[in-house]
Amino acid sequence: MGQLVTSQIEESIATVVINNPPKNLLTSQVLKELEEVIDIVSNDPAIKAVILTGGGGLFVAGADIKEILALSTSQEGERVSKKGHGVLNKIELMHKPAIAAVTGFCLGGGLEIALACHIRIAGDRTRLGLPEINLGIMPGFGGTQRLPRLVGRAKALELILTGDMIAATEAKTLGLVNQVVPETDVLKQAQGLAKKIASKSRMAIASVMKAVVEESAGDLTSGLSLEAEIFGGLCETHDMKEGLTAFIEKRQPKFQDK
């Protein structure tokens, strides 16, 4: 077990916490540890439901910009994207319900993790979004595929193309989150839901998850493959480097469309 992603098991429920202060950035190490924890909880027959949350009052504020900036070829970018796909697919394809308990900021790769979960509970002050386009890139961990499946293509395109953040209440209206509760009650609400699910038959839970998740995935695999290829191509562009550098330097990017 790593130090950035931990899990605690109580009453057939695993609570997985991403704790990489101050912003819980989704670094390659966090992704590695997340995969290790998901492998463990997925294969533990004692666990009937999983809660995924962030420490320090926020979920995940995004990826590590410096790591992305270091990508210089399409092959490197595509490899990173596919690695993210692999980890998040493990969350989505678990035969155990994964509940995202979301507080604070849930942005970029953080929202993509939440999208891979089966149920999302958000705090009333939570902000959600896919702001990658502001950096000259695009979502690369499944956002272009999972968001349209939840909110529809037109709204997904609006959110991805503007990079705008939305409030939890709007996210609920769109069907992006299931419930909005006071920020301090998010984990408690997620635990209550997980306990209610865990009180059911293990075989029935697994059967429902298999029937619903595998069917609704549809042609997700080919969509994710295309996303990784396109994300990789962006890693060779001037605007990607400019967007990420501007973010680090805290200035407005000057894109040159190349």
Q: Average pLDDT across residues?
A: 93
CATH class: Alpha Beta
Named CATH architecture: Alpha-Beta Complex
Q: Roughly how many Å is the radius of gyration?
A: 18 Å
Provide the structure class.
alpha/beta
Largest beta-sheet details: 6 strands, mixed
Number of helices: 11
Poorly predicted segments: none
Order of helices and strands: EEHEHHEEHEEHHEHEHHHH
General shape: globular
Question: Distance N terminus to C terminus?
Answer: 43 Å
Helix content: 40-55%
**Number of structural domains:** 1
The fraction of residues in strands falls at 15-25%
What is the CATH topology descriptor? 2-enoyl-CoA Hydratase, Chain A, domain 1
CATH superfamily: 2-enoyl-CoA Hydratase, Chain A, domain 1
How many β strands by DSSP?
9
User: Which strand order do you get reading across the main beta sheet?
Assistant: 1-2-3-4-6-9
Structural account:
The chain is of the alpha/beta class and 258 residues long. The radius of gyration is 18 Å and the shape is globular. The strands form two sheets. A six-stranded mixed beta sheet has the order 1-2-3-4-6-9, sandwiched between helices. It has eleven helices and nine strands. It has one domain (5-198): Alpha-Beta Complex (2-enoyl-CoA Hydratase, Chain A, domain 1), CATH 3.90.226.10.
